[in-house]
Specification:
alpha/beta; seven-stranded parallel β-sheet; 39% helix; binds nicotinamide-adenine-dinucleotide; binds uridine-5'-diphosphate
Amino acid sequence: MNKKIMITGGAGFLGSHLCERLLDAGHDVLCVDNYFTGSKANIRHLLGNPFFEAMRHDVTFPLYVEVDEIYNLACPASPVHYQYDPVRTTKVSVHGAINMLGLAKRTGARILQASTSEVYGDPAVHPQREDYRGNVNPIGARACYDEGKRCAETLFFDYRRQHGLEIKVARIFNTFGPRMHPGDGRVVSNFIVQALKGEPISIYGDGNQTRSFCYVDDLIGGLIKLMATPDGFTGPVNLGNPVEISIGELAKRVIDLTGAKSELMVRPLPEDDPLQRCPDITLAKAELDWTPAVGLDQGLKATIAYFDELLRADA
Ligand code: NAD
Ligand code: UDP
Ligand code: UDP
């Protein structure tokens, strides 16, 4: 059935892929974005589609539209971007969630929150299951994002308890792919851009910290499946690829796949940088019948091709 679906943060990395997939599935898509970290270039190819509409709006202000479903993705996501104006980051997560939940309450729309593995902080339990309550420093440099997202989860569950809203909460682990912002400082985009330019690869700390990288197409499939679950299933549910890799190893993979001559350059480890991260996706497998299909090398190749084209166009 064709639905009216709003995606906040729809001009960002994940949001633009989600807009595309929902349009392909025959829905009417409203993309709401203030273009803080997203861009019109990410959605340019969708603008001619009569079922697509782009609206410039900041979610910290109220918004009155009529929709059937809301994917709430608006929030700067990379440490460089969310630490640029940390007070604003908390406001986006918290005021943005309140406004979108208010909208969902008024319209009866189902609403999905893009939460994050950062709610687990620097985890003392490994791999992370949804019932782990996390290890977040509430006053550190990452807190604006981590605590903002944790508070947004609280709001989602209180709106459900108090007002009976149909909510879905996805805890997204590191995701990568085409349309990542080349300057947002995230590890995959940094390494690929550095390798393609023949610059040194910046390893923060000793490179032994781990992450688990999910390709964007897999992640988007998980979000759509989560939205389609019965009302009884709210999550939170981890969405990510459970193959763990050290950052040093990732650097070697990127060098191999690009054929770059780049050296490794050691930089200081940022404050509160989690030492290890890997999702336990048992719940997603059971409730969504979801499991990632794209391997790291396959995803990296597609991402390298994207950045290669982008850098050539800029040259
Ligand atoms: P992104 O920065 O590319 O996208 C965020 C989008 O939100 C951008 O288009 C930005 O302009 C928009 N935005 C920011 N503030 C806004 C505001 N006040 N009003 C309206 N729009 C606003 O990042 P992304 O990687 O696509 O992340 C999307 C969502 O997924 C975020 O909520 C992020 O926290 C979450 N997430 C992403 C990852 C990941 O690895 N990519 C991991 C965990 C969680
Ligand atoms: N809101 C919105 N769009 C709507 C309905 C509400 O942006 O369609 C905002 C509104 O500004 C409000 C917030 O969502 O501040 C929370 O709404 P709710 O109804 O939960 O609370 P209240 O209006 O009582 O503050
Ligand atoms: N990182 C790195 N070099 C970079 C960028 C990041 O070594 O140029 C490290 C960073 O310290 C962290 C990991 O890579 O340990 C993932 O960083 P990213 O910012 O992509 O995501 P997050 O820390 O939010 O998982």
